[in-house]
Design the sequence.
């Protein structure tokens, strides 16, 4: 991978990574570290009562937006998110996806794929030709998950929208623009829940896009920060959700460190 692309890919992935899988990573730029630290501080609160999956699904039914905080290289987290999306479908909750992993410039190309007019390989080539940092192919992330989101959306006829342009703009511009996109999708699809998959550090603290969007929401974090995991007293059930910092956290990402 060329050095410049490696830096861009890492920076984009880092915005959501508060406690991702163990791997060697380059030093964090000061601005990103401060942004990340504000997220950790915002969510580092005592846990509330454990919630079961039926309770969480009931909360989601009453929401307008479901925010899924992403840690871009965590296949463990992505498996949990895929399972939750499957549960929504099985519960009859229709939704539309708003994804950080594709760019607004590629919306027409994505729509062509979703409509059946092209294949996944065509989509991947087209996105990569425009932006060599494409998350559909970046081995430093979890490209198989992002591809699977689009494949499942195609099979289930789920509308998909890009959250922002790629390559990424400066953080303040991104966090100001994201709520506008989410509100627009919600207005265009009033009959569907809006599911937003975005780096978890954007959600609260530095980015605070959930509050800025101003719609009734359920917010599920990505990989729980180490400081939060240290608050866990007991073993957490596989299907449990733990509330902390205004977010819900999947039980398996809240295991107390040994």
Sequence:
């Amino acid at each position: 991978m060329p050095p410049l692309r490696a830096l861009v890919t890492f920076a984009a992935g880092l915005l959501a990574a508060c406690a991702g899988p163990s791997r060697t990573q380059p030093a964090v730029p000061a601005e990103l570290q401060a942004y990340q630290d504000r997220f950790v501080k915002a969510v580092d609160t005592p846990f509330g009562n454990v919630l079961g999956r039926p309770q969480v699904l009931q909360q989601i039914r009453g929401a307008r937006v479901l925010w899924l905080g992403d840690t871009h290289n965590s296949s463990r987290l992505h498996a949990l998110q895929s399972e939750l999306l499957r549960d929504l479908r099985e519960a009859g909750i229709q939704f539309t996806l708003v994804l950080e992993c594709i760019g607004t410039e590629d919306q027409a190309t994505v729509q062509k794929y979703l409509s059946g007019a092209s294949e996944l390989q065509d989509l991947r080539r087209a996105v990569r030709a425009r932006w060599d940092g494409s998350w559909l192919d970046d081995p430093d992330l979890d490209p198989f998950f992002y591809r699977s989101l689009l494949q499942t959306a195609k099979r289930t006829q789920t509308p998909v929208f890009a959250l922002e342009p790629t390559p990424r703009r400066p953080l303040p511009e991104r966090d100001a623009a994201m709520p506008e996109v989410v509100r627009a999708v919600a207005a265009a699809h009033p009959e569907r829940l809006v599911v937003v998959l975005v780096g978890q550090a954007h959600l609260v603290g530095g980015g605070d896009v959930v509050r800025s969007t101003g719609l009734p929401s359920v917010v599920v974090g990505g990989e729980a920060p180490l400081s939060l995991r240290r608050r866990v007293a007991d073993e957490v059930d596989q299907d449990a959700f733990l509330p902390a910092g205004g977010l819900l956290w999947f039980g398996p990402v809240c295991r107390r460190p040994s």
